[in-house]
Amino acid sequence: MVTVSAGARLHVGFQNLSLAHDRLYGGVGVGLAEPRTRISAEPADGVSASGQPVRRYATRAVERLGVSGVEIEVESSIPRHVGLGSGTQLALAVYAATALAHDRPLAIRSDAPELGRGGRSGVGVATFEAGGFVVDAGHPTTRFTTAPPERGEWTVPPVVARHDLPEAWRFVVVVPDATPGRSGDAEDASIRTVIEDASPGVADEIAGVLTRRLLPAAAAGQLDDFGDAVERIGRLNGTWYTETQGGVFRPPAGRLVEHLDEAPVLTGIGQSSWGPAVYGVTDRIHRDEAENLARDSLDELGLDGSVYVTRPAADGFQVHE
Asked: In terms of pTM, does the model score above 0.70?
């Protein structure tokens, strides 16, 4: 039996959603140490797995690898459809565990499209591979217009920048109990709507923040500058989604963002992907204060939910044999 685990990821936003520019998407995000998906696999005749998503990914992995079958057990999982990248981490963990159980070589990046992953953002694939703060190159606009390609008919966008963030940093992730974030056909439809109307000027401003503020701060490990730049990119992304999600941030993430934004111990407040997960970053010294603040914010806003405090991931998936 082989066991594979992988941490969640935060998706800060995209560099561009306008068809007026040469490249579309271009994800910006961070790998997290927690929460984690943990998958065990052993060879079998046919596919044995509990839950439709797990069976689907296991079937695709078996077909792609050309093996007899696999028995999958999910020991723990990242919460689904809350903005933490659960789908990509699950798909790739199932694939990796299946391959290793059969002593097959891993081709994570090239096989991810066959699993239906990496079609827009490459952040989840990149953080599964190696963790870190990641910026990907996006896709040529001529190939990726408003209609998504069929599964497997793309390559995962290459990583153009990756930095290990300081081990002393802590990401505070608040997941309110709310309607799940968009995925599948609903996500595709929303993205098409956004792309058709997206302002290229927003992408131009994001490019300036990314190159002159965020990348230097990540490389130098400057917490406050990193947080300010992350927050700005998140809010600029939100202007593209105002019509489709009901504001710069979706409800109730917007209320949490504004509440947490008043706290001096947190910086870089934003919504991950379609939410409802909200995040901020602090340091190890202020960890407990930031966690208490996050829990108090849920209580004061009358929301139930979960709070995770985690370090940035310095590496990708782990294998436990």
From this structure: yes
